[in-house]
Amino acid sequence: MRRGDAMMTQTAQAPKLADDKFRTIRDLIYEKSGMYFGDGKKYLMESRLARRLVARGLKTYDEYYYFLKYDPKRAEEINRLFDEITINETSFFRNPPQLEAFGKKILPGIVADKEKSGARNLRIWSAGCSSGEEPYTLGIYILEALKFSLPKWKVEIHASDLSKEILQKAKNGVYGDNALRNTAPSYQSRYFVQVNGMYAIRDEVKKLVRFQQINLTDKVKMRSMRGMDVIFCRNVLIYFDMESKRQVIAHFYDNLNPGGYLFIGHSESLHGVSKAFKLVHFPKAMVYQKA
């Protein structure tokens, strides 16, 4: 029997997740991360919690809750659980209209303004960066925009995620064909090296990106991210309840420079969350700007 098949068989043997047990674990996840899973997400959570139950060799969800709450290895397990319950599916150049707005309109404008003022520094934050495709994509756009003037600039792309495991994958910077499905052949040849059938991001892109673990509801960590020109936080707000969304967006506003831009998921909106930003329209894309 293959390992994956064995895990599926074992997971099927895990106990049924009672409503009260789901809510207890759900509330602990919220306490630790700010991510909220309503009662309607129980069906989605059950199989993922069951995998962790089996992986830890536990028999009941009460045992798993106490493991998360009190075991010396609880921090490691909470990271593993976050990996299970968050979706890490992404790719390079995901949602082209937003990236076109960034690369062809917003970035050149920021560069021109900073050239005039003599402040040749760029600070961009990919919040919820997953396995690194987004911040590396932004790095490619910056290299294309600055070209030979790059040595005159101080460029910082900060990339953060809640999961240590996914951040390690991002730091490695090695990807399969699927991650590059939206990447132009010219960019593939210029910014990637093929290694054993995989694609490794070149060092000139890698060195622009700084990875770190950040919980977006951690007020201390969030206050350390001041002075950003652009923040990307796409398809992350879906995990937060309204109170946490407002808190996170307020921190983003404070962390942006005057006139800075915030990108959220193309199907996401700040309606009912914040009135502090101005909505800016681009072809097939909308971006929020600090007023």
Strand order of the largest sheet: 6-2-1-7-8-10-9
Determine the mean pLDDT. Answer: 92
Low-confidence stretches: 1-9
Query: How far is the N terminus from the C terminus?
Result: 59 Å
What Rg, in angstroms, do the CA atoms define?
Answer: 21 Å
**From the helix content, strand content and strand pairing, which structural class follows?**
alpha/beta
Order of helices and strands: HHHHHHEHEHEHEEHEHEHEEE
How does the major sheet shape up? 7 strands, mixed
CATH level-two architecture of the largest domain: 3-Layer(aba) Sandwich
Percent of residues in helices comes to 40-55%
Number of domains: 2
Q: How many H/I helical runs?
A: 12
Tally of extended strands?
10
Provide the CATH superfamily of the largest domain: Vaccinia Virus protein VP39
Strand content: 15-25%
Overall geometry: globular
